[in-house]
Amino acid sequence: MAKPPASLDSSPQVADLLARLRELVQSGERHWFIAVLEGAGQWPLAEEVENGRHYRYLIGGEAFDWFLLAERLCEALADVTPEDEREALLRHGRFPVEVSEEEFRRLLGPAKHRAHLNFLYGVRVEEALQLGVAQEVQKEQLCQVWENGHIDDEVYNRIYGATRQELFNRFRQVRAPSDDNLALDHRHEFTYWLFKQRVNNADPARVASDTRKGMAMLSRLRSGRR
């Protein structure tokens, strides 16, 4: 994978923010998770490189992956936060303290909360929809699809009306025709693009039905994880 440009390296503004969050946690003024959410709300970068890893927090310019940023902040505050609580959050999505939806929105701020909802529906629900349709294909025992290794083609055809490769080629032409690493580095962006294609091009009743299917699947996945 090509190395992202050096201009994405963390800024002094990030260092100051992390230092302030550390002080809030160490002094006991904030629970560490509340500090993480506050930090996410104040985070100045859409993407960055830290310790050789490329973090892309904003997908398609409008979908905010707050959980990826929470992972970054947890790593930065690892020495002043409980390991078991961090693991429960990052591995299982369990909050260490109760946070209402209203408080979550307040801590992220209105703009980032809207972008978070874009990510929730445009990436997480869309991924769950794909998984749900894949299970339908499996239940129907489409032997030829399985034998030929084309289950992805069947899933994508059912949802989007084309094979995965055809769709990815269209996405690549729009996003970055010359980027050979696009498949590895932009999975969430591809999913978000698929979501927008589905919403913009399908019958509204079908869009609503598929979205409900994805939300139900995501709810089952989360229940199983808990």
Summarize the structure in short.
The chain is built from 12 helices and 4 strands.
Question: How would you characterize the overall build of this protein?
Answer:
The chain is mainly alpha-helical. The chain has 2 domains: 6-108, no CATH class; 116-225, no CATH class. Helices cover 69% and strands 5% of the residues. The protein contains 12 helices and 4 strands, in the order ααββββαααααααααα. The strands form 2 sheets. A two-stranded antiparallel ribbon has the order 1-2. The chain has a two-stranded antiparallel ribbon with strand order 3-4. Helix 1 runs antiparallel to helix 2 (32-42) and helix 6 (110-139) packs across helix 12. The longest helix is centred in the middle third of the chain and has 30 residues, at 110-139. It is elongated, with a radius of gyration of 20 Å. The protein starts with 11 loop residues before the first helix and ends with a helix. Mean pLDDT is 88; it is low at 1-7.
Query: Helical amount among residues, as a percent range?
Result: 55-70%
Which parts are unreliable, with pLDDT below 50 for 5 consecutive residues or more? 1-7
Query: What is the residue-averaged pLDDT?
Result: 88
Shape: elongated
Structural class: mainly alpha
**Count of the domains:** 2
Query: What is the CA–CA distance across the termini?
Result: 34 Å
Total of helices? 12
Question: Order of strands across the widest beta sheet?
Answer: 1-2
Q: Count all strands and give the number.
A: 4
In percent, how much strand structure appears in the residues? Answer: 5-15%
Spatial extent as radius of gyration: 20 Å
H/E topology pattern: HHEEEEHHHHHHHHHH
State the major sheet.
2 strands, antiparallel
